[in-house]
């Protein structure tokens, strides 16, 4: 380098040392603006350069002290004196000096980027702190070596000690950096996985410890552990999982559709909120389903797998993961079918596959209702001895078609759910001596059919009768007469405990209406009775009215509904809000900006009849939530023809743990011109407490009737979060998705 350039670089090195010290001293008071965050995120890109350069430089620095140079120093000459340096090639000396200077400067840039990056959410924990301070140490040691190497006291021993210390610091900093990105067990993970472990016995397996926890450990805990608390969330122990993280509780027991855990794993992979993040090992389809089912089943931590109902989807999937203490592989007396024959019988609407690897047993599935014909069953004759499983679910199978099924001599499992059979043709199946599982749900099978023919199924173990014409009493009679058969008809086959109904569903295309609306609340299971309330109380099965199709709503109404059916546990309570919105302005505009993250569709957001839900940061819902934090939300609406108004309601999200609060106050201004509006109404809603649950609610401001051509709606965010909040003293985020003018 030219002397002038070297001088500038040395000044930059000194300035970097001062700036880094400043960042460290005032770290707790510094907030990194959004435009600087991309610089911080370049930290992983740059950090490899100073590592290589500094390692090379310190090794060369040690070799600068060869035997001749050491002797010269013992005679009182410094390593950089003319007599000593003359023995070194000029290129070596110049290259080494410049290399140290460049390495130290790059280390400074890397440290500054890392400090910027550490201010973003999720960079907490001991691993991050170790990486941070060892990285800072690398910079200061490199700077110290550069400035000390020309001093008279700088000896070969000091150079060797500095090189060793620098190498150690680089290795430690790199190790902790890799632990942040890949997890602390990344290096030894393959060895650990290959260690022999005792298989879990199904009889002792716990749903959480043996099914759910392994998913967290493999896919989540590298970022969510006490050493690296991404989002202030740890998934390493039960208490931390229950507590949740910075964005709130991880799950709402029994409600996967609004649980943060389930919503994050189902976001598009490219979404920055998707978990695990892009670049990490992703959840398999089965793993994602297991997590959803666990939350749906109330996210219990101490329940055994075998304590779940035998028809429970989580149990069915979990059972497949465990081997009994002494598992006996099924043996079949028949030979495998001809491969060419199987290949020929496979079509777009019929799949035939081995039941297991190297097994002669075959599983057959038929698809496409429009393409079905009995001929598809008849064509299976060449492999009738190898078929052990046949799925005809939801196909137009008739009683007469069962004569082809009855020829499958080794059939063990038959699914004819929701087919057109009446039960009269069940006699065609009695030759199936190996049949163990028969599914007749959704068919017109009658009690008389089963009572007369069930005795012919000598090895039958399970019989599914969901949604048939059989009454509970008739099923009980069949159970009593056939104790060896498990009947699946809304009951737990182990304990005879009813299964819980899922919640009712609203079928209206929108719950926002102009003058009136007939709410359409349905349930997917036939024969379910829905009871409801509109006064905020929970519906019961005796006093609450039965929901019907003639209910008309003319005002804002919140309906709570539960589903009931004999032989089942009632569903959880479902809450549906219906909103009246009489007036839609002809034009609308915002006087103050929305925050950068929650732009939604600008001013049009508030009257598009699209309601938001939780996860406001997800692009799937981004168009539904408009937000402000640093300023008021000020909306001006214009009506070409004057309208009479008596209230304005603002629908907002409240999620206290994440700092999303209702407005501190709402002001309504009105008038006949944009420049001459007067205050016609105000309201100050009560603020949530520390234990308040997340909710979506409308805040209404009522006033005396006013005829206006212009309305200005001012919603003021909370200026200072309360003392109990983790971000106390800061401004709250205000989110609004819809405004109702009546």
Query: What structural category arises from helix and sheet content?
Result: alpha/beta
Q: Could you say how many structural domains there are in total?
A: 5
Q: Which stretches are poorly predicted, pLDDT < 50 over at least 5 residues?
A: 67-79, 81-87, 193-197, 491-497, 616-622
| Strand order within the widest beta sheet | 3-4-5-6-7-8-9
Oligomer: single chain
Provide the gyration radius in Å: 36 Å
Total count of strands: 22
| Share in helix | 25-40%
Q: How many helices?
A: 20
What does this structure look like?
The protein has 742 residues and is of the alpha/beta class. The protein folds into five domains: 3-182, no CATH class; 207-319, no CATH class; 339-488, Leucine-rich repeat, LRR (right-handed beta-alpha superhelix) (Alpha-Beta Horseshoe), CATH 3.80.10.10; 500-580, Immunoglobulins (Immunoglobulin-like, Sandwich), CATH 2.60.40; 587-741, Jelly Rolls (Sandwich), CATH 2.60.120. A hairpin with a 7-residue loop joins β3 (350-354) and β4. The N and C termini lie far apart (75 Å). Mean pLDDT is 82; it is low at 67-79, 81-87, 193-197, 491-497 and 616-622. GO terms for molecular function: electron transfer activity; heme binding. It holds the Pfam family Fn3_assoc. The chain crosses the membrane at residues 12-36, 42-63, 95-118, 130-147, 159-177. Residues 220-278 form the Cytochrome C Planctomycete-type domain.
